[in-house]
Design a protein that fits this description.
By secondary structure, the protein is of the alpha+beta class. The protein folds into 2 domains: 5-38 and 95-162, no CATH class; 41-93. Helix content is 40%, strand content 37%. It has helices at residues 41-65, 69-93, 117-132, and strands spanning 5-13, 16-19, 22-25, 29-37, 97-104, 108-114, 138-145, 148-153, 157-162. A hairpin with a 2-residue loop joins strand 1 (5-13) and strand 2 (16-19). It is rod-shaped.
Length: 163
């Protein structure tokens, strides 16, 4: 299943960078960075294989204890579950996300995560150009991945707010 996305407005106006309703003065931005985020494929495959093995063992136990219709029902149910989980695993393994990270002089970081790498790389370039150009203004909409919002302050402290 692809990640849930939402659209937010990103704009630079009067030397202020806006991510939706959050504002960052361009003079306080010290660095922009783009990252490619890939899933932990090895762990996902390991968990998938363990789950399939457990489902098959459970199905075999049910089929041996209750032969006949219940055994066939257990077999069909586990087979359907394996098909659904296999499709989700394939989608997860093919998932690549791109993150734009904005660092400020206050040592805080803000990131936007999107499935569209071209949008993220273009946005990073436009923000960097706007830092050097006092007259720069732009407005765009970005499809971002919706999920946990991680805000970092300081060297090793991470705060998490789930929305």
């Amino acid at each position: 299943m692809p990640p849930k996305q939402e659209s937010i407005d990103v704009r630079v106006s009067k030397r202020i960078l806006w991510f939706g309703s959050e504002a960052y003065p361009l003079r306080n931005i010290t660095r922009t960075n783009t990252l490619v985020l890939t899933p932990n494929r090895g762990l996902a495959i390991k968990r998938y294989l363990i789950s399939v093995a457990l489902w098959l063992v459970g199905m075999a136990v049910v089929a041996s204890v209750a032969p006949g219709f219940v055994g066939v029902l257990a077999f069909v149910g586990v087979l359907a579950l394996i098909v659904v989980k296999t499709i989700k695993l394939i989608e997860f393994l093919n998932l690549i996300l791109y993150q734009l990270v904005i660092e400020t002089a206050a040592a805080s970081h803000q990131g936007l995560v999107s499935a569209n790498g071209d949008e993220i790389f273009d946005l990073a370039e436009r923000i960097t150009d706007a830092i050097d150009d006092p007259e720069a203004e732009f407005h765009t909409q970005i499809q971002i991945v919706k999920g946990d919002n991680i805000t970092m302050h300081g060297d090793h402290s991470v705060g998490k707010a789930v929305r």
